[in-house]
Amino acid sequence: MKANIGITDKNKEAVAIILNELLADENVLYIKTRNYHWNYEGDNFMEMHKFYEGQYQQLEAIVDEVAERVRALGHYAEGRMKDYLRITRLPEQDYSSEQSEQLKNLLADHESIVVNLRKFADKIDTIYKDKGSSDFVTGIMIQHEKMAWMIRSYLKGL
Ligand SMILES: [Fe+2]
Predict the structure, then answer these.
(1) How far is ligand 1, taken at its centre, from the CA of residue 37, in Å?
(2) Distance (Å) from CA 60 to ligand 1 centroid
(3) Structural domain tally of the chain?
(4) Of these four, 9, 67, 133, 157, which has the most CB atoms within 10 Å of its CB?
(5) Does a structural domain hold residue 98?
């Protein structure tokens, strides 16, 4: 059934596409962070293991919120791995157990998502007239800015 929420069909569809692309990026970053949680090696293993766990738990919550926002616009959320891999803008690197490499990969992904969301937050508001989704992606952007800061703080000494 159509969502009758004061946004044109064309605009709802455009925003749903943006959100599904974000959903793909969030899923790739979630799995990458879990991969590092599992495969990290170093004398601060438990510190990094727990740090990554805190971050992937936040990403898991974001994944769910983004998918459900797509549904609130009356569209279907992408829900297959092959669709995420086709849509995502984030690269998947070779396996690494090394701290600085893992952190640099994660930082690049968080920063890439932040840059995209900053652009889309304005576009969703001014062009697609969807204030709710604009505020929503701004909130997600702020969470990524904080996660990026925490990763960056580890990298200073490396
Ligand atoms: Fe675990």
Answers:
(1) 7
(2) 13
(3) 1
(4) 133
(5) yes
